[in-house]
């Protein structure tokens, strides 16, 4: 049936456009406060590619991944 094909094609197109929109609106790590492009690149090397992944893993797990990849990564307390 021709109408069914048109309807299914429209659903497919709508889903593809929604996925593309979601992919383009993904927050970049470097856009967070105190985050540089360099740190974004280092996090990407350990599989943390966007803000969502950072939030899901949490700060401690992200730091542990960085530390495992590079033993020169250290913890520095901020003094107030």
Structure description:
This protein has helices at residues 2-24, 37-45, 51-69. The mean pLDDT is 85. With 80 residues, the chain is mainly α. It is built from 3 helices and no strands. 64% of the residues lie in helices and 0% in strands. It has one domain. The chain starts with a helix and ends in an 11-residue tail after the last helix.
Distance between the termini: 71 Å
Number of helical segments with 4 or more residues: 3
- Taking Cα atoms only, what radius of gyration do you get, to the nearest Å? 20 Å
Number of domains: 1
Structural class based on helices, strands and sheet pairing: mainly alpha
What is the average of the pLDDT values? Answer: 85
The helix content, as a percent range, equals: 55-70%
User: Count of DSSP E strands?
Assistant: 0
Oligomer: single chain
- Amount of beta strand: under 5%
Organism: human gut metagenome
Protein name: Protein sxy
In short:
This protein is mainly alpha-helical and 80 residues long. It has 3 helices and no strands.
Note the topology.
Layout: H1 2-24, H2 37-45, H3 51-69
Which descriptors apply to this entry?
80 residues; Protein sxy; TfoX_C; elongated; mainly alpha; TfoX-like
């Amino acid at each position: 049936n021709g109408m069914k094909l048109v309807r299914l094609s429209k659903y497919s197109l709508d889903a593809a456009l929604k996925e593309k929109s979601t992919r383009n609106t993904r927050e970049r790590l470097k856009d967070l406060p105190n985050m540089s492009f360099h740190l974004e690149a280092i996090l990407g090397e350990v599989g943390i590619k966007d803000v969502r992944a950072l939030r899901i893993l949490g700060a401690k797990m992200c730091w542990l991944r960085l530390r495992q990849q590079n033993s020169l990564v250290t913890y520095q307390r901020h003094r107030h």
